[in-house]
Amino acid sequence: MILELNKNTSESLVNEIAQKHEAIVVNETNAYVLITPSKLKTSLPEYKQYIIKEVAVPDDIQLASKLYRSEKREIKIADHLIIGGNTHNTVMITGPCSVESEEQITQAAELCVKLGVKVLRAGAYKPRTSPYSFQGMGIEGLRLLDKMRNQYGLKIISEVRDSTHVQDIIDHVDIIQIGAKAMYDHGILRAAGKSGKPVLLKRGFGTTLQEFVQSAEFILSGGNPNVILCERGIRTFETKTRFTLDLCGVSFLKEYTNLPVILDPSHAIGYAYGVPDLTRACIAMGIDGLLIETHPNPKVAKSDAAQQLNFEEFTALYKSVDTVAKAVGYKIV
Ligand code: PEP
Ligand code: MN
Asked: How many domains does the chain fold into?
């Protein structure tokens, strides 16, 4: 359960109440928020007088639960772009799977500028399935992304592969991406929790919705309220597509959690031919954003070659998305 205490409660009393309820304390701007194991359904009678809000929850979806905060969280990216809240923004994020060279990432950034896309994505540390595949440019890739931010005014999202470079990612990006394979890594989750920067947390391909949101709880309870969830496809019996995009899961997340939800059709299907149709289907669900891989020449891409759209394909798709968003009361930004 969640207990909120007034900000003028003495530190020793906050600690005593936390200890008696086996709670984690999050020091928020307006209150001390104490999160106990979810099996606890009521606070101890002797402390009721100090508690301004008490919320019992059925399971460990707690800070992310609509039972605790019914409004969708608003996440500020750098100073003016907002994801979630009641903006009804569907924020477009695009760029290559990996930063491969200055020329390639500059072309991707220029496509964003040309179309009005505000967030550029690209991995510098790639979590590959094989040790013999391209592992990413590392810190050099992050420096190139910094250059794109400075040169073109774009916001940057890039992923953490493991905890050895988590601080480099935090220092260089506007949104920290925690990928499908990294989402169980508590070192990464705790570092993201401490950083306060917006985090895009991807669902693992074998992860239940409960486990997914509990991973988000590690970041939220670490003191970072700026978490965005990303559905990117789960593994099913089907092998014709790379993964299966779980739109039912998206409905669940929208209904029961207060976190913005972004969809990634590129990694879900794994093939460029299906990305435009899937993107429009995603937008029709009324979502907070999209992550779509584009590459100046997908055939020579060093990772995820089959699923990246070339610039003509992305431009054609981009021209078709506004009407779909409008039909469900959203706008593409
Ligand atoms: C990516 O975004 O390029 C990526 C590797 O995604 P995921 O973690 O969803 O596989
Ligand atoms: Mn990729």
From this structure: 2
A 10 A CB-CB count for 232 gives 21
User: From atom 2 of ligand 1, which residue's Cα is the shortest distance away?
Assistant: 97
Contact assessment for residue 100 and residue 301, using Cβ atoms and an 8 Å cutoff:
yes
- Asked whether residue 62 is domain-assigned, the answer is no
Phi, psi of 26 (to 5 degrees): -115, 125
Structural domain boundaries enclosing 41: 2-55
pLDDT digits (tens, 9 = 90+) for 96-121: 999 999 999 999 999 999 999 999 99
| Residue 188 included in any domain | yes
pLDDT (tens digit per residue) in 24-70: 999 988 899 999 999 999 999 999 999 999 999 999 999 999 999 99
Same domain, 218 and 305: yes
Tens digits of per-residue pLDDT, 143-162? 999 999 999 999 999 999 99
- What is the chain's Cα-based Rg? 20
Ligand 1 pocket test, candidate residues 93, 97, 161, most atoms within 8 A of CB? 97
Of the chain, the percentage scoring pLDDT greater than 70 comes to 100
Q: Which residues line ligand 1 (CB under 6 A)?
A: 97, 123, 127, 159, 179-180, 202, 232, 267
Would you list the DSSP string of 210-241?
HHHHHHHHHHHHTT---EEEEE--B--S--SS
